[in-house]
Amino acid sequence: MKPALVILRPQPGAAATQARAEAAGWRTVVAPMFAVTALRWDPPDAETFDALLMTSANAARHGGEALARYTGLPLYAVGAETADAARNAGFARIETGDSDGAAMADRLRADGRRAVLHLAGSEGRRFDERGLTITRRAVYASEPTEAQGLAEALSPGAVVLLHSPRAARHFARWCDADGARRDGIALVAISNAALAEAGPGWAAAAASPAPSDAAMLAAAANVLGGERAIR
């Protein structure tokens, strides 16, 4: 039997990942380590910006009615899921990146953007802002929650998907506190930055080449079938 694919991301993203994984033949366990809630925020004047940046689909899902003020701006979205959520929120001018916030900052600079509104989470990661004037607004928060069923899911050979650097850091700490053996668990992280936060000692570890479920599932299959396959 193929090892369990353990999904730690918050809902509703966890259910979407689960559906894609099961359609691809994976056996899944959903054990969210965070719950996402919307925050009240002060929307700045849209006319002071020449671009909008979202590095997570949660910004589009939880930004609320104020998002309508910015639909006239070009939106730079990290990942296809973020772009899809933004489209559902009424945005049409969307540039989609397949890496991370740092790569998108390079793209903003290359496109001549200067004044950028970044809608993010309360613990969003910083990136190189040279040449850009970034105004950030936290529109959602991800709060740690008890991951029901996680201990039982981490049988030897389990493959864990890490959808953010914060999730990677939190999961590594949880394993060390709970006594879960790192050398019996494989990781697939959404980015190199997320993988770095998990630290060493895992049975196998890989970074997804793109911030999408499809790319993460492909990386998980490579981890199981590669030279570093789980013992």
Give a written overview of the molecule.
With 231 residues, the protein is an alpha/beta fold. It folds into two domains: 110 residues, Rossmann fold, CATH 3.40.50.10090; 103 residues, Rossmann fold. It is built from eight helices and eleven strands. The strands form two sheets. A six-stranded mixed β-sheet has the order 3-8-7-4-5-6, sandwiched between helices. A five-stranded parallel β-sheet has the order 2-1-9-10-11, with helices on both faces. Strand 1, helix 1 and strand 2 form a beta-alpha-beta unit. The protein is elongated and about 55 Å long. The C terminus is likely disordered.
* Number of separate helices: 8
Percentage of residues in helical conformation: 25-40%
Mean pLDDT across all amino acids: 91
Strands ordered across the widest β-sheet: 3-8-7-4-5-6
The CATH level-2 architecture of the largest domain is identified as 3-Layer(aba) Sandwich
Number of domains: 2
Write down the CATH class of the largest domain: Alpha Beta
Q: Compute the number of strand runs.
A: 11
Derived from helix and strand composition plus strand pairing, the structural class reads alpha/beta
Rg is 18 Å
Low-pLDDT residue spans: 227-231
Order of helices and strands: EHEEEHEHEHEEHEHEHEH
Euclidean distance between termini CA atoms: 14 Å
Largest sheet: 6 strands, mixed
Strand content: 15-25%
Kindly report the CATH topology of the largest domain: Rossmann fold
